[in-house]
Amino acid sequence: MKVLLWRKYWLPERSGKVVSNTRVVRIADRIREELAELLIKEINDPRLLGISITDVEVDRELAYANIFFSSVEGAARADEIQAGLEHAQGFLRSELAHRIKLRVFPRLRFRYDPTFERAETIERLFASLDHETKSKEDHG
Question: Average pLDDT, whole number, for the chain?
Fold first, then answer.
């Protein structure tokens, strides 16, 4: 009979432990707050001026943090901003890990958030519908 003692000491890359939803939300909120502060006070990259962190989603294994950002200029600068964020990713992750004490800090993934542009488009549609309705009432 073979005894495989090495399996006893083998550890997977991640522990596979799942964190509660409330803790995940608290961690995501804290990452958003600290990251926004870092972008204002610590980062001097001109590509990252005028951006805001709109949301952070952390998976339950705390392996990844999806960070959603938007810009005053809209989607026109999304690629430039994404390149700047990815360039600063190592520094940002290191600083966040110092500020937020976790056993293993999630890897950062940056995504452009077009929510504000979509909301503006919807508002314009509502305004045009309202204008058309008023003009029909005036003529009819």
Answer: 83
